[in-house]
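Tokens for chain A. Residues wanted.
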């Protein structure tokens, strides 16, 4: 996936299952994989490591699944409220989604939060 972003290009992404979102980083092997994929699809576009100005990683909160291949987990998005427990407040959990559905996902979350308020 490629997006123009602030005069540069944002390229991604991989789909690696993670157990601890706080430990997620864009590692060298992922960067190589993304650049190799780009070269396969667009052989005339050459990107070298010294042209990369930033790497980042994020975690897509997919629905719970026993499937070992993350590509088979549905990307539909939905929101659920987790009711208050003890000293913890109610939490709106946003699950699933893709970059291409962020507007409808945001509208769904905003509508649910406003209705609740």
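Reply:
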């Amino acid at each position: 996936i490629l997006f123009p972003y602030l005069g540069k290009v944002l390229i991604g992404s991989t789909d690696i299952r993670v157990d601890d979102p706080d430990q997620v980083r864009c590692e060298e092997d992922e960067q190589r994989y993304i650049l190799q994929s780009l070269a396969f699809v667009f052989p005339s576009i050459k990107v070298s490591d010294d042209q990369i100005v930033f790497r980042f990683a994020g975690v897509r909160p997919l629905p719970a699944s026993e499937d070992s291949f993350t590509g088979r987990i549905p990307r539909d998005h939905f929101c659920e409220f987790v009711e208050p427990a003890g000293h913890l407040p109610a939490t709106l959990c946003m699950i699933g989604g893709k970059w291409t559905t962020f507007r409808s996902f945001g509208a769904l979350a905003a509508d649910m939060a406003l209705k609740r308020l």
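Helices lie at 28-41, 102-116. The first helix runs from residue 28 to 41.
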